[in-house]
Amino acid sequence: MADNTMSKAATMEIPINSNGDTGTLTEDDSLEQDLQQVMVSGPNLNETSIVSGGYGGPAGGIIPTSSIKGPAVRYNPEYLDRRRTAAPGLGSINHNTNSTEEVSRGVAVEKLDSVKKWGINTYKCTKQMFSEKFGRGSRTVDLELEAQIDVLRDTKSKYENILRLATALITHFQSMVQTQQALGDTFTDLSQKSPELQDEFGYNAETQKLLCKNGEALLGAINFFVSSVNTLVNKTMEDTLLTIRQYENARLEFDAYRSDLEELSLGPRDAAAMVRIEMAQQDYQVHREKYERLRSDVSIKLKFLEENKVKVMHKQLLLFHNAISAYFAGNQQQLEQTLIQFNVKLKPPGSDKPSWLEEQ
Question: What share of the chain is helix, strand, coil (3-state, %, to 5)?
Answer without folding.
Answer: 80, 0, 20
